[in-house]
Amino acid sequence: MAVSTELPEAGSPQEQGTEATAPPPPGLRYNSPLVQVSLIGLVCFCCPGMFNALSGLGGGGQLDHTTADNANTALYACFAIFGVLGGAAHNLLGPRLTLLLGSLTYPLYAASFLYYNHRKSQTFPIIAGALLGAGAGLLWAAQGAIMTSYPPPNRRGSYISLFWCLFNLGGVLGGLLPFSFNYARTDAGSVNDATYGAFIGFMLLGAALTFLVLPPARIVRDDGTRATRVTYSSVSTEGWEILKLFTNWRMLLILPAAWASNFFYTYQFNNVNGLLFTLRTKGLNNVFYWGAQMIGSAGIGYFLDFGFASRRKRGLMGVAAVALLGTAIWAGGLANQLRYLDGEFPDKIDFKEGRRYAGPFLLYFSYGLMDAIFQSLIYWIIGALANDSQILSRYVGFYKGVQSAGAAVAWQVDTHKTSLLSQLIVNWGLCTVSYPLLAVLVLLAVKDEDYSVSNVDDGGKEKDAKMAAPSSFH
């Protein structure tokens, strides 16, 4: 199928903020939501996807987890701040520059662990972690705004699934890198230089792909409607809107889920995959962990788009399904954790050990599945709250900021050698508390009607749905 690169010209209805008068030509268009969301998926395949594969090894691929724990604490502490500010940055800078600035911090982080392989100094990894926290806040705010505002409202779950599959394909491939490069190093504790070099190469490619991202003004859906309003903001406006998020009842209901959604990574990566398995098996496990995320996101996305005629009912049933599956998986995690309460597991499990490997592997696979359906559900709910990319970029920024604050705490909890059983119980409890609050949010805020542009502002008040003409484009 040919890809059309035909874009609206300056002064066209699309750029002036009105509805398109006629559907665009058929075919796979470069300025379609499908192509642009796929492009964001490829950027995240190369940058956060590879970062996830590196983190999933436990300790950033190092035998001693202390350096990675401290680097990740710095990372998520900065991410908590820049996650909240990221929505404002996106609204001021536009998606292309925001994504570029964010993506360039990922290869620096991977390079810091290559440096650590030779110098054993924590300074560079911690500084790189802090910079990555700032960059990740920018990248994920732009990603969230694009993923939640560009798709047609009745296909938002499918687009979230598409993104999640592409993004986690990076984790799958990233898991194969340490598995293949370290296959013969059965007694090694840390990954070799070639592994870090491969991660750096993919991350640089992701940064280059951001130049292909189009400005929101040029995105047109297949029915001819504009994907989002195109108005540009000011620093004072964004500052005020960010402050209002902390009193927005919708965001307060999302807060426990946001805190929980990355809090469990530390436990799963360091104290399940990082503690139980041999080095090469950790890499193989990550292939299936992130592969499970692709399966989970595809399943929940399809259900949230097509499960019932009522969008609110789909949301409520989605929360119920996630709650039931999550509870079952955490119960399995408890059974596994009771095998090594002291946090010591000297006889590492290798993937060739068959029956001994099967149970812990299935648990780790299920953790990946749970993460995907949980976060995909949250993104779907956020996307159902508005269609305006400016509002959604702030909502996603708030979500990522709170999520990262939780992760920063979790990494320090692990650094201080907190009981693994306590870590599991806290993770399980946080997830459990979030389910009824998400159900309340769906019940009160998710409507069955869809609009091509949002007619609700950040405070929940009705506003004029007419789109103002932008004065400039990013």
UniProtKB/TrEMBL annotation:
Subcellular locations according to the entry: Membrane
Predominant place of localization: membrane
Keywords: Membrane, Transmembrane, Transmembrane helix
Protein name as annotated: UNC93-like protein 1
Keyword hit for Transcription: no
Transmembrane segments annotated in the record for this chain: 34-54, 74-92, 99-116, 122-141, 162-184, 196-214, 249-267, 287-304, 316-335, 361-382, 425-446
InterPro entries, sorted: Ion_channel_UNC-93, MFS_trans_sf, UNC-93-like_regulator
Region (Disordered) residue spans: 1-26, 454-474
Any one GO CC term of the record: membrane
Gene: LOC123187056
Entry membrane topology: Multi-pass membrane protein
Superkingdom of the organism of origin: Eukaryota
